[in-house]
Design a protein that fits this description.
The complex is a heterodimer.
Chain A lengths: L1 H8 L4 H37 L2 E3 L2 E3 L5 H6 L2 H34 L2 H12 L6 H12 L4 H8 L13 H26 L2 H9 L4 H12 L1 H16 L3 H6 L7 H10 L4 H25 L3 H4 L2
Antiparallel strand pairs in A: 1-2
Chain B lengths: L1 H35 L20 H8 L1 H34 L3 H16 L2 H15 L5 H25 L3 H9 L4 H30 L2 H6 L7 H9 L5 H35 L1
Helix pairs in contact in B: 2-11, 3-4, 3-6, 3-8, 3-10, 4-6, 6-8, 6-11, 7-8, 8-11
Classes of the chains: A mainly alpha, B mainly alpha.
Chain lengths: ~300, ~280
Amino acid sequence: MADTTTSVTLRPAGRHRAAGRALDHLFAGLPALWLLGVFLIPLGFTVVYSFGHSSFGGVKLGFSLDNYAQALSGFYLDSFLRTIRFAVSGCALCLLVAYPAALFIARQTGRLRTALLLLVLVPYFTSFLIRVMSWQILLARGGPIEFGLNLLYLHSGPLDVLDTQTAVFIGLVYAYLPIAVVPIYIVLIRIPPALLEASRDLGASAWQSFWHVTLPMSRPGLATAALLTGVPMLGELVIPALLGGDKGVLMGKAISQQYLATQNYALGSAMAVLVLIAVAVIVVLLVRLTRGFEETGR
Amino acid sequence: MSAPASFTRRSGNLLLGLCYVLVVLFLFAPIVTSIVYAFNVGTLGKQTSTFTGWTLDWFASAWNNVSLRRAIGTSLVASFWAALIAVIVGTSLGFALVRHPSSTVRRLLSGLTYVLLIVPETVIGVSLLLFFAVTGLRLNLWTLVAGITPLGIAVTGLIVRAGVLTLDRQLEDAAADLGAGRWQAIWFVVLPHLAPAVLAGALMSYVFSFDNLVISSFLTTPSINTLPVYLYGSLQYGPSPAVYAAAASVFVFTIVLVGIAGLLYRLVLRRGAAQN
């Protein structure tokens, strides 16, 4: 109430308002223009080129679906489907590992809670490459993990994990785990304790309360976590190259090869557009999953 | 009824605690490894997975490696300019996300911000490469700088947005009432309030640009090479421990910057809390 009256009496004069509007347009226009130049227009080029005809040393613009036909057949289709499978399973694994950790952090209070969250988050801000390349040492034959597993009698003899799919999955979960914990943690701390008390009073066991109250309530956080982890996995380039050996090419590598080695820009563009379509499908699915939470959540 | 329930609850908590500890070990094992193995003797100048002894030589050898040093130089310069641009553009984005009078514009801008965060970097990288190839722009330091700005802009935009949300609008109105123009109000009232958010955004942009590998790997040339791209290249054929020594030094550098950014961000949140 008081708020509206003061803002009416203190409203700046017309001259100022016109200047203010120009300034508002400047603030919105600067990022819009810059991102148009270095982000949206280049993406547009990729879309346009994906419909072109590739010829030696260049692309003739036009409208053909040949590149998509090629990208969706044989070797390229295999790597597209493999990439989707990798992203889906990598993302599921990531959520599976992140959820208990997030739940544990959310059940603490005060400074301890913040400290526990930070501990998980800090690695995400350190160099991606350094974090991934160390797995080459950790997983290699004669490396620390082989030593540790042998010591605990969990494994005997040399460890053959490096340059396999398992190593790629370890790398994927590892690289995106911190960013999966945060959104799950945020929804978990917002679940009203009264709900859990009510379910306990009605005779639910700890497991039943979790299954019927906590887990359904954390759907939006799980969706955000899936988005933040699954989407970058679709374009992942570095982890498979460093940990997966040369077996099973994923889209990231297939696309970059079209640009850097084969120089078939049209085909590479079509594959990049396919990845973008996959991203869009994921976004739509996840938005549907969380529908209805805007009104009832919090 | 209640005794067994509390028992399962306690053992559940214990299990969760164990999961958490395992997650933290998992997250820190590679970081510790990369630092420890920077001191590994190795064999015949190559890194080995078995630890063969302690030495400090690799730090000297990393320092004496001319192409490594040039890559570090390029990274420092390129991420400086990228962070500077990201801070100017991102601050203005963060402000417009909250304060632009038209809700359509606000919605478009926030859509754009989220798109920036979810388009895979490989796709951004090849698109930029194609764009520069078609328009005939030769790859140089500036095409690299421009290419890595979007990530920093999105991050700065979101941090500054959080800062603007804690800013009391009446302060600006009061400034206007006392005769300040909009520019003056922003310069003398809004910006000082947003300073921690802007600085945190600048540091995060710097760190993200410095670490950027995927986009940079498409935009670097033999003469303009950044540190992550150089390290990535040398990992393909049995790296020397010097690579790890360089990486460990970078790690310390990054952690310090992130720490400062974190402290500044806390200041932003605390100011917000103090005002509400």
